[in-house]
Amino acid sequence: MKPSQMNERDFVEQYGSVYEHSPWIATAAHGLRLTPEHDDPVALAGMMAAIVDGASKTQKLELLRAHPDLVGKLAQRGELTDESVEEQAGAGLDQCTPEEFVAFQDLNTRYTEKFGFPFIIAVRGYTRPEILEIFKARVDHDPEQEFAAALAQVDRIAALRIGQILAN
Predict the structure, then answer these.
(1) Which of 110, 115, 104, 49 is nearest to 73 (CA)?
(2) Is 103 helix (H, G, I), strand (E, B) or coil?
(3) Extents of the domains making up the chain
(4) How does pLDDT run across 124-153, given as a tens digit for each residue?
(5) Looking at the domain 67-167, which fold is it?
(6) How far is CA 115 from CA 25, 109, 141, 146, in A?
(7) Whole-prediction pTM
(8) Fewer CB near the terminus (10 Å): N or C of the chain?
(9) Neighbours of 58 (CB within 10 A)
(10) Which residues are part of the catalytic machinery?
(11) What's the CA gap between 12 and 55, in Å, rounded?
(12) Sign of the dihedral defined by the CA atoms of residues 121, 125, 131, 134, in that order
């Protein structure tokens, strides 16, 4: 069913997970009166990104903190969302060498201690070595720059997920 034809419950059930553990974004999107224009993945993703953009700094920080570490404890315990499992496996993050695993753990610790939220990247289309290089570069960002970069990645993840839902 097209987003513009869904009731709130069905829309939130279908699109509530495109932003990790943050169904409030889908609820807000539905409340803005979806039109047939929003049946297009780019338009729907843009609408939802605008909701995030208009959120308070506290809500944005909570959204960032809702994401798992890459190759982190949740992955080791099998506690990632289905979407995160698929995305991380697609980038080969479930097949790290011991050296890569140690590097990810070190970077996760450094990054979270510095910024107060996990490193976020839309991994689709990247390889493990590319992700590690990006991670190494972004851990040196200043906090304001990295907050913006993380939010942009969250929006990209959501847009990819929306596209995947609407393609099925």
Answers:
(1) 104
(2) helix
(3) 3-61, 67-167
(4) 999 999 999 999 999 999 999 999 999 999
(5) UraD-like (1.10.3330)
(6) 23, 10, 10, 8
(7) 0.90
(8) C
(9) 8
(10) 67
(11) 18
(12) negative
